[in-house]
Amino acid sequence: MSAGIRPRLQLFGRVARESGWLHRVPAGWKLAVIALIGIVALVLRDAAINWTLAGVLVAIGLTARLRLRHFVLTWAYAGVLVAVLMVVQLLIGTPAAGMRIAGTVFACVQAALLLTLTTTVAQLLDAFRVIVSPLRFLGANPETIALTASLMVRAISHLSGLLGEGDRAARARGLETSIRARVVPAILRSVKYAQDTGRALDARGIVD
């Protein structure tokens, strides 16, 4: 039996090895489409439109040679969030509102998946640097903003991995039903990750 460290769970941030047409679309265009999807979902606030957007995005992913296995895990985690939101809406709102919110969540999650599966972090940062470059005239530093975005992208993947590790550790101790056993270790390690990142940046003099 082989030994070793199990790789961390990643919901976002890992580029798919299969290269399709969506990989060749410039990152700036993909960011613009995601922004448009978010605006449509939040402004129109229509369940049918939101679920249609989610379905279209899934179809786009499949035509871009992305396999279902790239999506299923994140869909499962999004499904848990949607289930909680649906219960809340059934208690204090309406089923229609729950369906609308669920459609918005799945559409935005699927859009983010397509972006991260077909775009490297370097490509994202280059596009983001171009987008924020006009802020230079207002005294902002685009390089610092891009660095912040890079750290955020890496943190999403890292923190999702910590949650996966916490879940596996709780199951190994027979505490799979304990939210505290699953979440508290991830929170503590997340704080340590943030502190280590801050110390590393300070030691290199990258940011003031």
Automatic annotation (TrEMBL):
One protein family per Pfam: CbiQ
UniProt topology in membrane: Multi-pass membrane protein
Methyltransferase recorded as keyword: no
GO annotation, cellular component aspect: plasma membrane
Primary localization: membrane
Keyword DNA-binding recorded: no
Subcellular location: Membrane
Alphabetized UniProt keyword annotations: Membrane, Transmembrane, Transmembrane helix
Protein name as it appears in the record: Biotin transport system permease protein
Organism: Brevibacterium celere
Residue stretches spanning the membrane: 27-44, 51-68, 74-92, 104-125
Signal peptide extent: none
InterPro entries: ABC/ECF_trnsptr_transmembrane (IPR003339)
